[in-house]
Amino acid sequence: MKKMKQQKNPLTLLFQYEQQLGLENLKKQSPKKKKRANCIKQSKLTQLNQKIIIFLRNLGISNASDINQQFNKKSVCIKDLPPKIHNQFKKQKIVKKNKYFLKNSNLQSYTSLLLQHRIQATKLQKKQPSRANIQRNSKSLVDSYNILSIKRKIESNSLNNLFINQQQSNQITNSYYQKSLDYFYKTLIINQQIQRNLNKNKQMDTQTYDQSRPAIPPQHFDMVLNQVKNRNNYLDLGMETGQNFFQFYHQFNGNIVGIDLNSQRVEFVRQKAQKILPTQAINRTQLIDGDVFKIADKLPNKTFDLVTIGSQIHNFGSPDKFYQFAKERLLSAEGTLALTSINPLDVEFQACYDDKENAALRKDFATLNEYLSEYAILPNNPFLNQGVMMRHFNNIQKFEQNVEQVMEAEHVFEYFRTLPSYIKYMQDDTQVDKYALQNFERKVREKIQKRSLTMTKQQSLLRVTHKILTFLLRK
């Protein structure tokens, strides 16, 4: 009978991986070359840190506490580490009685701490890199969207924010598009008209947002209606600018309710409804700005024959919790819940995933999705875990639609502030929000300036194939 292979200490694997990266050869730079050394050090550390995070996630480690949980200990014994590394940690006085104590911190700060101690502990010398390497390392910093403050919230299990999708999309597409003049456009999946001063932070109006939304194929609405037996009451959650609302309202004879966290969008739908809906339908319509979980008592119990959610399921926390809530409080006896998720997975994205250089990142993305699947759905995730959906939905269908999106450059930053998920995120931590947006805007402006994106791009249109996934739940 074969013996089971003993699982290695994650820290042992980590340090072995650091040796493969050549981390032990990084030296503490001399003060005389401080200015140049900082440039080298910062770019090198950023690259190493990202690689180490990917490595740890592939081990199933999402934050520092996962290492402790894996061994059911409050601290991790490092006696199995190579003696040289063990001695280095002893010199730095971060080891007590052969145990390295891990704080319950996010993965980014944890790996940064490890890097700092490893560099301070080693005295090995390394030849100074060439000027070409310095420039290349510096360029990698500019080309990458470094939203480290956001990762703190993501990796501490605050999953209800929009930056999960944006962060991962930027990381994956970065190396594939970094040589392209259209990088800025393709990364955001939005084509911008570069014609005004980006320093003028004007509020993005709801009408502009409505025009930039991707179209949903009419077959989607037909398929949903075919699943609805009774057509009395209708509820649209995460209403946004009324894409679902204005397609379904005329099919129901009873109460018509729309709910969204963004009061501006609710007002936009209200004004549009006054122009489009007949008087009889307006009298039956109720538009509410708020959280459905908090205002559930104001809604009739188990009366809605159709509940729709358009690309907003990730804002409702745990899918299991929401589906249970929908069954117990919203859906009628034969009610239907229809969820639409937009998943941009075109040829260019696929080519990026198949790139050998991104193989590790692709695996990391899949691991992240598996970790998040119990808590949130990532609508922009090409590895959307349909297993989560299949537990609840008995009918899944996919449509393809070519979509043109045009948005002025000055509206990019305000675009994030209008999203319901962003509003919920703001309620938790405004300081992180302020820093994140400033950092994001600075990086985008650097990108525009460096790529010389001027008015010559204003007529350029980017066509993106969206895969519209529709999931239906029948009680």
UniProtKB/TrEMBL annotation:
Swiss-Prot/TrEMBL keywords: Methyltransferase, Transferase
GO biological processes: methylation
Pfam family, one: Methyltransf_31
Superkingdom in the source lineage: Eukaryota
Record has Methyltransferase as a keyword: yes
InterPro entries, sorted: Diverse_substrate_MTase, Methyltranfer_dom, SAM-dependent_MTases_sf
The species this protein was found in: Tetrahymena thermophila (strain SB210)
GO molecular function: methyltransferase activity
Entry protein name: Methyltransferase domain protein
Domain Methyltransferase: 232-357
